[in-house]
Design a protein that fits this description.
The protein is of the alpha/beta class and 271 residues long. 41% of the residues lie in helices and 17% in strands. Strands 1-2-4-3-5-6-7-8 form an 8-stranded mixed β-sheet, with helices on both faces. The longest helix has 18 residues.
């Protein structure tokens, strides 16, 4: 399996297609496994790179991390692009991956050509969403105190509903369950959506993210996700928003995303 060594860890990645780099950043709990079909379609529109973030699935070390911080994931994303000589990229982030994409564009603007934010887990931007996320964090910690291996399942059941978890194939459930150590490491770390000190950015910092941005919301997602997107669309300077059917696991290769990629693949974005 292909791995790239960055920042002291070996990260599993897949690459296909040619042209403008497209980097896919998965959520929590998740893996690039859940982007496989989308990557096939994205590769028809550019050089698609997807990877398992540190601690998750094929990028999990023999000894799990005790904590994982937002800065770890952001530095890893930048290092993957550098190691593969694949920047600047159109970065697609789903859920926690969207939070990582936002901070990547702020800290490494030279690595980012444009942003696609699929309901980014940037809950601190909206008071109601922040309260929802803090409640979710508390419930996850309470319910995993005696059974930490259930962390991934509990996050999905609490955030997306029992029906979402029950609808998953058995093999996918097991893969997600195996990421529970990474889920708890992020909760116990810094800067991530369910961390005690989740990332906060002021108006000036958000206005400084001067990249074309597509913000995608789903009709059946938690209200907190739509609240975040409403705030972001007013805070980021160059945004386009779209509402799609379905729930929080938005297709990274939705037609609206592909159209955005095609319009921003050239030398003069949004010309």
């Amino acid at each position: 399996m292909p791995h790239v060594s960055v920042n002291g860890v070996d990260l599993y990645y897949e690459e296909s297609g040619q042209g403008t780099p497209i980097l896919g950043v998965h959520g929590t709990p998740s893996s690039a496994v859940m982007w496989a079909d989308a990557a096939t379609e994205l590769a028809r529109h550019g050089r698609c790179i997807i990877y398992d973030r540190r601690g998750f699935h094929r990028s999990a070390p023999p000894r799990p991390f005790a904590t994982l911080d937002l800065v770890d994931h952001v530095d890893d994303a930048a290092a993957v692009l550098a190691a593969l000589r694949a920047g600047p990229a159109i970065v697609i982030g789903r859920s926690t991956g969207g939070l990582i994409a936002i901070e990547l564009s702020r800290r490494f603007p030279d690595k980012v050509k444009a942003l696609v934010l699929l309901e980014p887990a940037f809950f601190t931007i909206a008071p109601d969403a922040d309260a929802w996320a803090r409640g979710l964090r508390r419930r996850v910690l309470e319910r995993t105190d005696a059974q930490p291996g259930l962390a991934a399942e509990i996050v999905i059941r609490e955030a997306l509903g029992d029906a979402t978890w029950e609808s998953l194939p058995a093999g996918l459930k097991q893969m997600l369950a195996d990421t529970s150590h990474a889920v708890l490491a992020e909760i116990n770390g810094h800067g991530l959506d369910l961390s005690d000190d989740a990332l906060e950015l002021n108006e000036e910092q958000l206005a400084g993210i001067r990249r074309p941005t597509l913000i995608v919301s789903a009709e059946d997602s938690p209200e907190a996700c739509r609240s975040v997107n409403a705030r972001l669309s007013g805070a980021l300077p160059f945004t386009h928003t779209v509402l799609v059917p379905g729930g929080h696991l938005i297709n990274p290769a939705h037609p609206a995303v592909l159209d955005f990629i095609d319009r921003n693949a050239g030398p003069d974005p949004w010309a």
